[in-house]
Specification:
There is one protein chain. A hairpin with a 4-residue loop joins strand 5 and strand 6. The chain is built from 10 helices and 13 strands. The chain is α/β, with parallel strands linked by helices. Bound molecules: zinc ion. The site of zinc ion (ZN) has 6 residues, from loops.
């Protein structure tokens, strides 16, 4: 019998990462495609997903009949059991049964979940949270994602809307957040939040290394890394502020959940995670009860940009049980 494979996708607002896993859970083929490559019309996202899967099958030489399943993480509120995207802020779907559509196209089982949930699942099954039962994940990127594993199971709450603790309000008089509230964790500690602080300081006449690199309200993680390495003062203020609020949010989650481990992932942590961890760890004890803090580990994600791809694999494996 020929070897079987799984195709795993990380669907983002601007790009899709794809990987093919063999039975030993090794990545044997990778592909990356910008979602804009098929034009700016976001309704093309599904076409890009299909073309990524088709290209991966063609270019890898793996036969379609040897693919067991396709798994994907995507932003938004997703009914993982039904494979329906209920709502996505960056993608064109509402109450969209993407599972039926993709399964009809390829005749291969298709699974999809919220990208941060899937990323935390990846870290839980294959990364730094392996072996623990209660996991809190903070994913620091353009926004601030949350994912929660309780008693060894992904917790998605009523109607799949849980774990939005990026929108935990930490200062009701704080900066405006994309969700409409003020002072959410995301408004301080995400790339959007840090970028807004830097632009505000620039307007006050304070020169810095990042403001010229900010596009559509966000800097790139690699530019943040450069500015931090150079010790750019305005950048360091934004980072200290981001880590201060991440420490408060972490303290709140420690008191609320008493997790075994908190995992910090996403593009920012991939680029400058060691510096962020040092700052968070220096402060977090102030914001939680010592008796609970004692039994919690705080760690950077281990799979980096591949958290979601491994999480998609974990989702496929869970679904088959
Ligand atoms: Zn918010």
């Amino acid at each position: 019998m020929s070897e079987k494979y799984n195709v795993c996708l990380d669907i983002g607002g601007t790009k899709i990462l794809g990987a093919i896993f063999n039975e030993k859970k090794e990545i044997v083929y990778r592909l990356k495609k910008k979602t804009k490559e098929l034009g700016d019309d976001t309704s093309n996202v599904e076409k890009v997903i299909i073309s990524v899967v088709e290209d991966m099958i063609n270019e890898s030489g793996i036969k379609k009949k040897d693919i067991k399943a396709i798994g994907a993480g995507a932003p938004g509120v997703i009914d993982q059991d039904a494979g329906v995207i209920l709502f996505s802020p960056n993608l064109p779907w509402e109450n969209y049964d993407i599972r039926s559509s993709i399964e009809k196209k390829f005749d291969i089982p298709f699974y999809i979940g919220n990208d941060v949930n899937v990323g935390v699942l990846g870290e839980y099954k294959y990364g730094v949270a392996k072996g623990y039962k209660n996991v809190v994940g903070f994913f620091v990127g353009t926004g601030m994602g949350g994912g929660l594993i309780l008693d060894g199971k992904l917790f998605t709450g009523n109607k799949h809307k849980a774990a939005e603790y990026g929108h935990m309000v930490l200062d009701p008089e704080g900066p405006l957040c994309g969700c409409g509230q003020r002072g959410c964790l995301e408004a301080f500690s995400s790339k959007k939040g840090m970028s807004a602080y830097i632009l505000q300081q620039t307007q006050r006449g304070r020169k810095n290394m990042l403001s010229d690199t900010i596009e559509n309200g966000v800097f790139k993680s690699k530019n943040l890394k450069k500015a931090m390495a150079a010790g750019d003062p305005v950048t360091m203020e934004a980072v200290d502020r981001a880590c201060h609020y991440l420490a408060i949010a972490s303290g709140n989650m420690i008191n609320t959940i008493s997790p075994d481990i908190i995992v910090y992932g996403g593009g920012v942590m991939e680029a400058v995670g060691d510096e962020f961890m040092e700052k968070i760890l220096a402060e977090v004890d102030r914001y939680c009860m010592p008796s609970i803090r004692n039994t919690v580990k705080l760690k950077k994600a281990a799979l980096g940009d591949d958290s979601n791809i491994y999480g998609a694999l974990a989702m496929i494996e869970d679904a088959k049980k």
